[in-house]
Amino acid sequence: MLITLDCLRADHCGWHGYARRTTPFLDSLASESFVVPQAIVAGAPTYYSIPAILASRMPLALGRDVIGFAPGESTLATVLRESGYATGAFCAGNPYISPRFGCDQGFEVFRDFLDFDAQPTHDTISPETPPGASLRGQLNHAIKHFAGGVGLSRLYNELYFQYCMKIAPPVYSVDALRRFPAADILVDEAQSWLTSIGERPFFLWLHLMDPHSPYYPPMEAFRELTGRDIEPGRARYLNEYWKRSDLTPSGFRGKRDEVIELYDAGIRSVDRQVARLVESLKQTHLWDDCVFVLTADHGEEFLDHGGRFHAPVRLTEEIVRVPLFIRVPGSEGTVVKVPPSPMSHLHLAPTLLEIVDVQAPSAFQGRSLWTNLQRGQAWDDPATVSALSPAIGPAIIECGYDCGNPFRAESRRVPRLLAVRDARFKLVMRMEPGATEEVYDLEADPAEMRPGVSGPALEARKRLLQAAREHLKRTVTGQDAVMVLRARLRDLRCEILG
Ligand SMILES: [Zn+2]
User: Fold this and answer.
1) Is the pLDDT confidence value at 142 over 60?
2) Left (φ > 0), alpha (ψ -120 to 50) or beta: where does 269 sit?
3) Dist. CA 88–CA 111, nearest whole Å
4) Could you write out the DSSP letters of every residue in 220-243?
5) Which pLDDT band holds residue 436 (cuts at 50, 70, 90)?
6) Peptide bond into 214 cis (omega under 30)
7) Other C-beta atoms lying within 10 Å of the C-beta of residue 383
8) How many other β-carbons are positioned within 10 Å of the β-carbon of residue 5?
9) Which residues of 146-182 are buried (b: 16+ CB within 10 A; e: fewer)?
10) What is the distance between the alpha carbons of residues 125 and 243, in angstroms, rounded to a whole number?
11) How far away, in angstroms, is 297 Cα from ligand 1 center?
12) Contact (CB, 8 A) for 487 and 69
């Protein structure tokens, strides 16, 4: 069973040392699992991350302009289905996890919940709302124009935002504001699917959106986490405020802690629901043989580097470092400490296949780390590797810079943003003329505030640049032309059919 949480950064999980009790149940699972301390996504956000998780493939391997899976591409689901597994996916309404991008391949049952009946109220009240044709709208437009002309834009924006909040219709429940189905709905669906598949082995994938913005957690989870209730109007105010585009980072800082509280409650909500799912698996004894994996497609930023959410404009740790643990039945009492070598998501699918004794397809770009996990042996340390299992290079992360809407082909044709991360250093480069790369020493500067190329970073820069070069070379020479063509054709068909 694979559970991916959208937007869950590693440092907000209890088993990674977060002080707030976001994950009491998952902490207990992690304590009997192989916990990877440095799990790194292969790309961010969702549409750049999922190919590595499901198909052990770098996100831009089919070209910068291709997003999603190629028809016929091997994934965890296709391989396990061919091996006789029942395969089911329940994904909480993320528009990029859908048949449009080939994510349903290999799944006998695939529910993307894109038909979830979300309440659009939160989109209707914002300072960016275009002025309507009404008299009030025209008046507003005139005032805005005038305020801009006399240097009072900030004052206007603030007053207009507060005005919008004041006239917004009353809201009586946080549930009514939620955009994505909460985890309880998906767990219900997963449970009924599990009862329908009889005795067959199964591969269940749940993609949960509870920690994703807008942050509207179920009230029980918020109460459990904080010991009090959240007033629905306040939750809406915070979410509306947090998505404003007229403020600088300092303008958001005063709301940050409250917004994080909502985000954390979304994590707590998932924790409650995973507990419920595992309990039902225990009752039916399916848990006895269940390999359980929990990870995230990427993290989330809360002004760590001045930004919010998770747009592909930077590859800082709060975005690329995600939780990952693997619970393997039979080894609960013997799990060893996993070394802090960065583990790219690229290696997850082959590792899982080896655990369940299924041959990984040769097209997978990653390698199984199952032996390393069992022995607690680093996979990036030349001293412990052998000819049979050579050292794995640093983790590579790539995405299209600022590609905010992969539905549009022109949005995808943007410069590549690339990061190369080893256990201590990270190189980040935007691949366009004139751009320079940055090197961070994550040991001396874990907050990634001081890029520099002196001392040990100088040596690291050379090494990581070399790894970047090799990666780009592999991308070009290793490209599967048939897969590229298939993915393009799928894309074209979707564009034509709308
Ligand atoms: Zn995502």
Assistant:
1) yes
2) alpha
3) 8
4) HHHHHHHSS---HHHHHHHHHHHT
5) confident
6) yes
7) 6
8) 28
9) ebeeeeeeeebbbebbeebbeebeebeebeebbbbbb
10) 11
11) 5
12) yes
Distance 46 CA to ligand 1 centre (A): 4
Summarize the confidence of residues 263-286 as an average pLDDT: 97
Specify the pairing of strand 86-91 against strand 39-40: unpaired
Helix, strand, coil share of the chain (percent; to 5): 40, 15, 45
Report CA dihedral (306, 309, 315, 319) to the nearest 10 degrees. Answer: 120
Exposed e or buried b per residue across 398-421, where buried means at least 16 C-beta atoms within 10 angstroms of its C-beta: bbbbebeebeeeeebebbbbbbbb
Q: How far is the CA of 7 from the centre of ligand 1 (A)?
A: 6
Q: Which residues is 86 bridged to in the sheet?
A: 202
Alpha-carbon distance of 498 to 493, in angstroms, equals 8
Ligand 1 centroid to residue 413 C-alpha, Å: 20
Query: How many angstroms does the Cα of residue 342 sit away from the middle of ligand 1?
Result: 20
Q: How far is the CA of 52 from the centre of ligand 1 (A)?
A: 13
Query: Residue holding tokens 């504001």?
Result: 177
Beta-carbon neighbours within 5 Å of ion ligand 1: 6, 45-46, 297
Q: Tell me the CA–centroid distance for residue 311 and ligand 1, in Å.
A: 10
CA 143 to centroid of ligand 1, rounded, Å: 38
Q: What is the DSSP string of 405-465?
A: -TTSHHHHSS-EEEEEE-SSEEEEEE-STT---EEEETTT-TT------STHHHHHHHHHH
Measured between its terminal Cα atoms, the distance across the chain in Å is 33
**Bridge partners (DSSP) listed for residue 418:** 398, 429
Distances (CA, A) of 15 to 5, 41, 162, 257, 262: 15, 19, 40, 21, 20
- Give residue 316 CA to ligand 1 midpoint distance, Å: 15
Condensed to tens digits (0 to 9), the pLDDT of residues 172-195 reads 899 999 999 999 999 999 999 999
pLDDT digits (tens, 9 = 90+) for 88-116: 999 999 999 999 999 999 999 999 999 98
**Alpha carbons 72 and 79: distance in angstroms, whole number:** 11
Tell me, in angstroms, the distance from the centre of ligand 1 to residue 6's CA: 4
How many A from CA of 341 to the centre of ligand 1?
Answer: 24
Cα 487 to ligand 1 centre (Å): 21
d(CA 76, CA 83): 11
Residue 44 CA to ligand 1 center (angstroms) comes to: 7
Whole-model pTM: value is 0.93
How close is the Cα of 250 to the center of ligand 1, in Å? 26
How do beta strands 395-400 and 416-421 pair?
antiparallel
